[in-house]
């Protein structure tokens, strides 16, 4: 058994949830925040038998889009106390960031 942790964009999260439901795949959805953009994203935790891991990855791949987003770097204050606000920079986000971990034990009490 494996634990798939998938970080997806909020805009893709509902379509992915529908795919999981259709396929009878159990998943837990967490509201998360990216450390870089500091904007919301969605993390799914999916416990799944080894032979269905590829199916889960295929569904994530199918539903996750790459998007361009703008972020404004934080304001810099130099030694003269002059502040400069950075120009917005364009960042490519996604499709999805996925980790697959082994599960030592699985219990449902
Ligand atoms: P964020 O940390 O908000 O990052 C959003 C996008 O900003 C990233 O998209 C990447 O294109 C860019 N980015 C991130 N850090 C950067 C940096 N130091 N310099 C320049 N650009 C940077 P993705 O790579 O598609 O990542 C989307 C989200 O997945 C991330 O949101 C974060 O929540 C998660 N993530 C990505 N890599 C991760 C990792 N190694 N461990 C845990 N979570 C990760």
UniProtKB/TrEMBL annotation:
* Family annotation (InterPro entries): CdAMP_rec (IPR010375), N-reg_PII-like_a/b (IPR011322), N-reg_PII/ATP_PRibTrfase_C (IPR015867)
Q: Which Pfam families match?
A: CdAMP_rec
Q: Which domain of life is it from?
A: Bacteria
User: What's the protein called, per UniProt?
Assistant: Nitrogen regulatory protein P-II
Q: Which species is listed as the source? A: Secundilactobacillus silagei JCM 19001
**Could you read off the lineage of the organism from its UniProt record?**
Bacteria, Bacillati, Bacillota, Bacilli, Lactobacillales
């Amino acid at each position: 058994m494996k634990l798939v942790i998938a970080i997806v964009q909020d805009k893709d999260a509902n379509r992915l949830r529908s795919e999981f439901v259709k396929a009878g795949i159990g998943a837990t959805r967490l509201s998360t925040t990216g450390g870089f953009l500091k904007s919301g994203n969605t993390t799914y935790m999916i416990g799944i038998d080894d032979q269905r891991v590829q199916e889960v990855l295929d569904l994530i791949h199918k539903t996750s889009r790459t998007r361009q987003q703008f972020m404004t770097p934080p304001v810099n204050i130099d030694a003269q106390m002059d502040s400069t606000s950075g120009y917005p920079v364009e960042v490519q986000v996604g499709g999805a960031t996925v980790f697959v971990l082994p599960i030592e034990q699985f219990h449902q009490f």
